[in-house]
Amino acid sequence: GGEGVDAFAKFLDGGGTLDDHDIAFLEQVFEDMRDVKPLVQRHPELESLTARIAVLYKEITDKALANEQGS
Known about the structure:
The protein contains 3 helices and no strands. The protein has helices at residues 3-13, 20-42, 47-70. The protein starts with a helix and ends with a helix.
């Protein structure tokens, strides 16, 4: 489920920063999101799910960047 995402968010909320492995993982998620676009176009009911994932991705990367700049 969402345990991994929750752990990621807590880690970043605590001031953690991303290592190369974390960044590679997020880049892969972002690439996968692009690959899903044709599926979402055929199944519009999936759009809200992909939109939530995109927002979460942005929140994680924004928080990670803020932590990097603060450290």
